[in-house]
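Tokens for chain A. Residues wanted.
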């Protein structure tokens, strides 16, 4: 039986993937102390020192042995009486932790192999979260946090330059202003995006922080990079003339993209007119991956910018490791860079403006209330001058804190503010649906996107009616699927494209399939074998499942 411990966030233990309640704070702290020792023996005296903050009570040794006995029963339920423990090993003058799986060790292994995304997905918060104030744990917590920062930095430095990469590097550099390598990575990304002046500004900011906080000049790396940028050294790589195109945008001329979505744009324009008249507006665009949610939001935002609105975006990321309130940090920092908040109220915006800001002498609920009210007030102040559009993209990946702020914003916001949300249908957490329920109470405009009809597919693709109909049937009118199929058709012919799944599309479909519950996957595998003739009743009978589950799987 595999004993597993997770420390990259709230401390937890499990046995063969089944959670174990190991008891109160002290038994958990005991396990943490042995985990930190990495298999070495920890004396009884050292354990008592750690458990009781240097002041153990008279009967503490007996209590410690009681903890050990209880933990052994929980972690090794099948161990024979009086047989030696393989997990909590009695090794004079104390105890050691035997065979176990540890997420922190797995993180180190994956990071060493270059699997940065997999490694970062193991993180669920601050290491040893409930024991963050325990003095002897601080060095280990800081070591793990520095390791995580290093992996995030390596992943971003290796990524193709793009606006979201720059935004994340900027956030990390502000949070760790003395880490020169972050400023270097940020400057390189900015330069590759054609933002040479901004790249030099980033290096000047690094110089300023080092001089003001340490009285030092930057190292050779920053000095050399500054010289390379000034001379546009070819070793920096070619500049990217425009941001990398999002996967969800079909490769057709921009003016033709409105095909099939004019009705939704008209309804959003009506919402904008109400906002310009002084009312707060909320809209939720939903649909499957590739259906065009982000494109619709971009098209609406482009129109508002042309009308003189302030527009700011917050992108939620699927990858773990992003800080809490990450989409709102992007939005508020973008807006503050253009219209700084009133100095009297900017302090309440806290972490949304400065990663180093911390609430002191305040309960978490009180700090959250102050922050939410500050955001509402800042948005209202901006909207007093001109209308404001805030876009939250891919809400299904938002963290709990971001969802809480959205819910309060939907309830409290006043003035000429529009909030546009994009979200994948059928994905997300219970907290996300709670936030959307609060948005719905604000009389939100709901825009579920379906696939394009054959006429729109014909206009979009330039194919004749018969071939466009076949393409619409094959792709169900999904713009992403249409684009990938047309790309394959350009290389191998339309007949081949209509009978084959393009590789880029196959990756998307595999990702969707793996996210479904196992019973749904079994139904879909059977349906794939049956082909177009698949019938819910026949599939239910063949699989021994209820028709309701089969129907849910076929429409998932």
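Reply:
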């Amino acid at each position: 039986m595999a004993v597993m411990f997770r420390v990259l966030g709230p401390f937890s233990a499990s046995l063969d993937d089944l959670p174990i309640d190991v008891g109160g704070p002290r038994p958990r702290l005991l396990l943490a102390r042995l985990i930190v020792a990495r298999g070495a023996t920890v004396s009884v005296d050292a354990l008592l020192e750690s458990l009781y903050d240097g002041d153990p009570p008279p009967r503490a040794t007996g209590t410690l042995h009681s903890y050990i006995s209880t933990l052994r029963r929980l972690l090794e339920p099948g161990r024979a009486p009086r047989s030696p423990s393989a997990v909590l090993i009695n090794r004079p003058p104390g105890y050691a932790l035997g065979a176990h799986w540890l997420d922190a060790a797995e993180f180190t292994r994956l990071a060493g192999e270059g699997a940065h995304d997999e490694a970062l997905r193991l993180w669920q918060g601050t290491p040893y979260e409930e024991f963050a104030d325990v003095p002897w744990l601080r060095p280990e917590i800081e070591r793990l946090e520095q390791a995580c920062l290093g992996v995030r930095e390596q992943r971003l430095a290796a990524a193709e330059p793009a606006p979201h990469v720059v935004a994340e590097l900027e956030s990390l550099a502000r949070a760790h202003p003395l880490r020169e390598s972050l400023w270097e990575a940020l400057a390189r990304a900015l330069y590759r995006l054609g933002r040479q002046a901004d790249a030099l500004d980033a290096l000047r900011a690094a110089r300023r922080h080092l001089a003001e906080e340490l009285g030092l000049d930057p190292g050779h790396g920053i000095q050399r990079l500054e010289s390379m940028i000034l001379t546009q050294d070819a070793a920096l790589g070619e500049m990217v003339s425009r941001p990398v195109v999002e996967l969800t945008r079909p490769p057709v001329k921009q003016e033709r993209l409105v095909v099939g979505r004019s009705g939704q744009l008209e309804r959003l324009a009506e919402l904008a007119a109400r906002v310009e008249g002084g009312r707060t507006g909320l809209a939720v665009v939903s649909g499957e991956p590739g259906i065009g949610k982000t494109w619709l939001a971009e098209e609406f935002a482009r129109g508002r910018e042309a009308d003189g609105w302030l527009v700011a975006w917050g992108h939620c990321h699927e990858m773990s490791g992003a800080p809490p309130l990450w989409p709102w940090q992007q939005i508020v920092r973008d807006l503050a860079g253009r219209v700084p908040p009133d100095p009297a109220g900017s302090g309440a915006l806290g972490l949304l403006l400065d990663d180093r800001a911390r609430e002191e002498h305040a309960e978490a609920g009180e700090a959250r209330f102050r922050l939410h009210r500050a955001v509402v007030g800042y948005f209202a102040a901006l909207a007093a001058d001109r209308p404001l559009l805030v876009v939250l993209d891919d809400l299904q990946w938002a963290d709990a804190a971001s969802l809480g702020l959205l819910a309060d914003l939907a309830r409290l916001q006043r003035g000429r503010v529009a909030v546009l949300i994009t979200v994948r249908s059928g994905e997300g957490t219970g907290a996300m649906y709670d936030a959307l329920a609060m948005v719905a109470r604000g009389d939100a405009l709901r825009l579920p996107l379906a696939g394009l009809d054959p006429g729109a597919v014909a206009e979009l693709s330039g194919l004749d009616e018969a071939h466009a109909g076949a393409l619409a049937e094959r792709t169900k009118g999904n713009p992403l699927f249409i684009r990938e199929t047309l790309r394959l058709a350009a290389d191998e012919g339309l007949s081949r494209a209509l009978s084959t799944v393009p590789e880029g599309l196959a990756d998307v479909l595999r990702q969707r399939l793996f996210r479904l519950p196992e019973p749904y996957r079994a139904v879909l595998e059977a349906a794939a074998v049956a082909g177009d003739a698949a019938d819910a009743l026949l599939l239910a009978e063949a699989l021994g499942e209820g028709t309701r589950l089969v129907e849910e799987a076929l429409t998932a």
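The first strand starts at residue 3 and ends at 6. Confidence is low (pLDDT under 50) at residues 241-257, 357-363.
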